[in-house]
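Researcher: Here's a chain I'd like modeled. Treat it as a single chain, no partners, no ligands.
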Amino acid sequence: MEKRTQEMSEEKKVLIFAGSSISHEDASKVLDATYWPPISRGDLDRAMEQGYNIIGIIDGIFFSRAAVAHKEVIRAMKGGATIVGGCSMGALRASELDVHGMIGVGKVYEWYRDGVIEDDDEVAVATYPDTFEPASSPMVNIRETLRSAFHTGILSEEECTSITLLAKRTHYSERSYFGITKEAHREGILPEERSKELLKFCTENECDVKRDDALLVLEKVRQIINE
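Model: Modeled as a single isolated chain. Structure tokens:
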């Protein structure tokens, strides 16, 4: 029995694509797996060649290089891989390919699946090239944080809507709470003191939807490993 259990364990080779929504260091504290940088075109084929058969897609490349193609994901699943997606690129591809067997988890996946959001830029961020850490704030986080500010009473519903639209008009690589609140004051949506109050709230109480969803991907992969 012990030998059989060991053989079954060795059959499960786990790979996670991440780095922007959650660092490899933090992710490895949750799940013991191999971690590669955000996924781009060709990485899934390489992973399959190396024998990985349980794959979690969290982060991916959007605009600087070719993104992972739908046919790559389908090819990997037909080759026997179980693929879980959520949070960022993983959520986007899972919402498009769950009908083909890709497993989607998390709030962002559900938003894409249900048509609440549609654009790639909702989860895209500028990153530092060496570490893949985010250098801008993702739109999905901004949406939830501004909604939280509304529910807390810091913003009216109209102000929340106006500032959300302002953030959406901003290029994904330039989105930040500092820039958004400053522009909200410049456009006359908020007076200066309230824009400063909003900035303080956002920086201290950000709703990090992407990190929460990244953790859900790791937990789902853990469940699959233990099945």
